[in-house]
Amino acid sequence: MLFSGNASYSHLELAFRLTCGPDSYGPDCTFCVPTNDSTGHYSCNNVTGEKKCLDGYQRRECNDCVPAKTCSPERGYCEDPGDCVCYPGFSGDDCSELVCSGQICNSSSCKREHKFLSYTCGQECVNDTCECQECPCEVECGENGECVRREEGDTCECSEGYRYNGELCETIPTTATQSGTTGSEVYIFVGVSVGVVVLIAAGLILISVTVCLRQRSKKKLLINTENVA
Fold first, then answer.
1. DSSP of 160-175, one letter per residue?
2. How many domains, in total, are found in the chain?
3. What is the pLDDT of residues 58-74, one digit of tens each?
4. Tens of pLDDT along 123-141?
5. Which helix (H) or strand (E) holds 42?
6. Are the C-beta atoms of residues 50 and 30 closer than 8 Å to each other?
7. Domain that includes residue 160, residue range
8. Are 40 and 47 in contact, with CB atoms under 8 Å apart?
9. Transmembrane residues, as ranges (predicted)?
10. Which of 20, 55, 56, 198 sits most deeply, having the most CB atoms within 10 A of its CB?
């Protein structure tokens, strides 16, 4: 205790020591729990708490395979210590090989025209290359068409003169012209009509000529009569 005149003062010194909790490291108490499961694959730096990826893993959460062990997401997945676990129908370090290993290709992936498609017919693979027989075309086209497979789905290619109506290939109807008559009927009808018109016109011309001749004859007869008188 210090005295100064009539006043007194006290001086107190305190010291603190902060300690990080469990699984916390460094001056900032960085939290880190060593993990080796689907959430990550890493250990912890005892000084800084920084995550250190286990062999075969990389990225922030140490959950991705290293480049040399990259697995195609369509063919397999990464599993410790960085190995690729291939889906059925694939094999190799990076699951790049197509192998069925004697299994049936039902619901497995097979390569066809540089695309991976799912086959559900249960056809067996041959020659250890996953050459699966694709499912048969499922559209009934009838005897005048053929079922074909396209990316948008199965459809029918019809023979000439036929069209696909959504169920089968049917005959394309002849285009109607007037009142349900066909082109040939109209042609005949028009031909007959033209003939009738020609006959009528010829008749009218003949009548006109006859009338004209009769009038001339009457006129000559009248002139001769006047001359005689």
1. TTEEE-SSSEEEPPPP
2. 2
3. 777 787 766 555 676 66
4. 444 444 444 445 567 788 8
5. strand 40-44
6. yes
7. 137-174
8. no
9. 186-213
10. 56
pLDDT in tens, 162-181: 988 888 889 988 764 444 44
Report CA-CA distances (Å) from 39 to 36, 65, 79, 84, 99: 8, 13, 12, 17, 30
State pLDDT tens for residues 200-213: 777 777 777 676 66
Structure tokens at 71: 């697995």
Q: What's the pTM value of the predicted model, to 2 decimals?
A: 0.29
Q: Tell me how far apart the alpha carbons of residues 192 and 187 are, in angstroms, rounded to a whole number.
A: 9
Residue 212: inside a domain = no
In the chain, the percentage of residues whose pLDDT exceeds 90 is 3
Within-domain flag for 215: no
Structure-block tokens of residue 46: 């005892």
